Amino acid sequence: MTGRKNLPIVPTDEPPACGAKLVHDFTPALVDIGAHQLCPGCGEPVAMRAVVEAVAELGRTASCVAVFGIGCYTAFSNNLDIEVVQALHGRAPSVATGVKRSRPELAVLTVQGDGDMANEGLQEVLHAAARGERITCFMLNNGVFGETGGHMTATTVLGQRTKNTLEGRDSARHGHPIRLANLFAQLDGAVYVARGAVDTAVNVHRTKRMVLRALQAQESGFTFVEILTMCPTGWFVETTQAPGYLAEHHAAVHSMGVLKDLKGGKGVAN
Ligand SMILES: Cc1ncc(C[n+]2csc(CCOP(=O)(O)OP(=O)(O)O)c2C)c(N)n1
Ligand code: SF4
Ligand SMILES: [Mg+2]
Predict the structure, then answer these.
(1) Band of the pLDDT at 264, cuts 50, 70, 90?
(2) Strand partners, 138
(3) Label partner for 86 (CA 20 to 30 A): which of 13, 66, 97, 185?
(4) For 102-133, how does the pLDDT look when each residue is reduced to its tens digit (9 = 90+)?
(5) Which atom of ligand 2 is nearest to 150's Cα?
(6) CATH of segment(s) 38-261
(7) Ligand 1 centroid distance, CA of 65 (Å)
(8) Domain segments of the chain as ranges
(9) d(Cα 153, Cα 136) in Å, to the nearest integer?
């Protein structure tokens, strides 16, 4: 028998074969239940999920410290079941350096945005990478200062409309975007550098493998994963159009893949 729109009608005169799934069943072990305030269609929760799932899979739940920058993603610092230190703008890699040097047995990671890392604290992360600090830095790259209204950052692609580049980013007036992962890949202290994205299920899967590999390689030196995330609000596009916008505009400039893997780890996506 079929119902409206040809969907099968589920008989209700006997108990279902298995119980209904609850929110808890879909939630990674390290995420505390609770609604976050991020916009519908935002890519940052997906990226954060990949990070916490990787921490759990590596068995580092009780031996991990995350240092957060400031941006929309900072909302997660309160509902993750791992230790979190809040840094000032752009300073997370320096704070993480201190944590790792004083507690070398811990897995230490940073979560920053493109505004926080590439604009407000580029020198911090650049020197941490060059020094080969044994930390893993994640940059959620949406090409805007999302939390403060969608202004241009150092990673904004040419032609992109932002709050202060309404006609689109113009190289003559606003300069060129910085490809951060490409920059780090040139530094001798960096042992693993990759760029992923969360616009499709396949890319989420690849990104998760990059995150795993970066955390695994941390004891060999500086590791970095840039994750392209959707920001429909800051991009002035419909929520449903944001993954396509990411693929067409952002990923065309900030190409995905593993840029450096000195240890040649097994099972790493590229
Ligand atoms: C020293 C300082 N400068 C600026 C701000 C304002 N501010 C807060 S969040 C933010 C945007 C951060 O952008 P990004 O790191 O890209 O994160 P997103 O919101 O896009 O996820 C800015 C500029 C601040 N809080 N402190
Ligand atoms: S402004 Fe952008 S980055 Fe911030 S929560 Fe909304 S969609 Fe996400
Ligand atoms: Mg941003």
Answers:
(1) low
(2) 111, 225
(3) 185
(4) 999 999 999 999 999 999 999 999 999 999 99
(5) 1
(6) 3.40.50.970
(7) 22
(8) 38-261
(9) 22
